[in-house]
Amino acid sequence: MSQQPEEWYLPDPGFDVLHTLAYMRYRLESRSVILLDFLGPADSIKSGGRRVPRRSGYLGRTELRQALGASGCFGDISEAAFEQLCDIFAEKREKRELSDQDVNYEVLCEVLQGVSYQSHAYRTGTRVLADKYLALKDALHSERYQAAFLTSFDDLPFARQPLSGAGERRFAQLRNDIMHTIYAARISARELLGDFDPHLNTSVSWMKKATARTPMINMSPGCISRSQYLRGMHRLAGGLGLSDADLNLIFNKYKKNGAFNYYAFCRDVDPGFDELQAMFAPGHMAS
Fold this sequence. Notes:
Blueprint: H1 17-30, H2 36-42, E1 44-47, E2 50-53, E3 58-59, H3 61-70, H4 79-89, E4 103-104, H5 105-113, H6 119-124, H7 131-141, H8 143-153, H9 165-185, H10 189-194, E5 223-224, H11 226-237, H12 244-253, E6 255-256, E7 259-261, H13 262-269, H14 273-280
Antiparallel strand pairs: 1-2, 3-4, 5-7, 6-7
Helix pairs in contact: 5-7, 9-12, 9-14
């Protein structure tokens, strides 16, 4: 999906490794998943037709990606964020044959959840994290950072994503145009977009089935897929001639776990006819 013009958007938080770690920690906690339960078994070798635990503490990047995917929590981590995560936890191995197994997953588990094969040693002080890992863990678990992260991540029912100053100004113009269209045409954004919600419309109940491509979209009531959003916006605001960039901007403003949070969108643009009339009726000035 294009995100042009770029000046409408804030820098991608996926390129902040601390943000990536906070996202991972949040997702693991919300789903009651212990990461070591998936990374540990991947650290094994084939022997006699079965896999034998290796417990080396290290995984190759392909193995790590597969193990993260098996947890069911991280299918939407971008390749750039994943590579950056691997680079942070990569360590040089002494043996050449182990050079491709360079990601210290045990330390990753310790930093994220304090659950690793060496957790007891870390707690008693007989084993210590390297300074760079300790700094990450302290920052990640600080109350101040957690509060800031939850504000930026906003996974609440009415989640909205921040844009740049230019992006917010353009969105405000688009919002005003859409609200005027809703008022003038006497239409309901809630009804037009709600038709695509599988949690409300039994005629699209087949969309409740999760797939490998959209495992998270179907988990959130009040959300619809990008293709459904585009179809709904054509019905809602087709006469406005919105550009692809404008449609992308609105989608990104209300993006939640890869889907479009139409609950929050409708709350902002379709407050009800009486309020819209007060804004757009002759003699009143739209805000």
